[in-house]
Amino acid sequence: MIKVRSLIPAFALASAMITAAPAHATPPDVIDIHEWPFGVSNTHLFVVRTSNDNLGLYESLRVETFLVAIDLKSGAEKMWVLDRLLQVRDYADDGEPLEYVTKRDEGLEPINPYAVLTEYGAVPWDGVSRIGSTWLEPQIAQDEASITVTYGEDTTFRATAEELANKLERVHTFMTENVADHPRMSTISTRGMFADRGIPVTACSPQEVLDFWSMGHGPGKLVRVVCTMGEDEGVTSMVVRLEAVEAAP
What we know:
Elements: H1 7-20, E1 31-40, E2 44-53, E3 60-71, E4 77-91, E5 97-104, H2 113-120, E6 123-124, H3 125-128, E7 139-142, E8 146-151, E9 155-160, H4 161-178, H5 190-195, E10 204-214, E11 218-228, E12 235-245
Parallel strand pairs: 1-12
Antiparallel strand pairs: 1-2, 1-6, 2-3, 3-4, 4-5, 7-8, 8-9, 9-12, 10-11, 11-12
């Protein structure tokens, strides 16, 4: 039976091995940010935000997960840390690769996200999501000014380009400020990497419409937007609220 050693020496050894390898063997720093709805109350939309970061190594994965309550009126956010972990291949003293190991940060205090929903009187997303709730297929269009979702000829919902840009900036700023500044294979810090991602709103495109029903606000719609500059450049996936557009008289 092989005894897995401490994760810190394993990370240091993996880093040293890559440092000694040819330059082309070092992968690019790839950071992905994903957001998905978790629940809705009369006052807040709850989302889970997760960052996936390879730390500039082929055999490592840094994951940080947060629950975020977004005020439906002001957009103000409150967050709880759900998880922080590092997954990396361990190595024996002779450099022989062992199994991948997962280690969570010391001092992490697990938060039950459903307890937070209970505190706010919120309903889990599965309880408010309305998959296939309409017989009309949503038509999604995007131009420089907005993302527009239309049902038939009369019902239209919209998110402006300014709203998309503001949401993208909030998500990136949130992660930059809240991720741990974990060691990585770079002269730039982890938070510096997050700050320098620089995905513009012009790299964002709508993917799907998410329907829900809130007892306090009635029907609502989110659009999942994916922003990326291309392969190995990182992805930001976020959900954006759509507002109804009044039909012309």
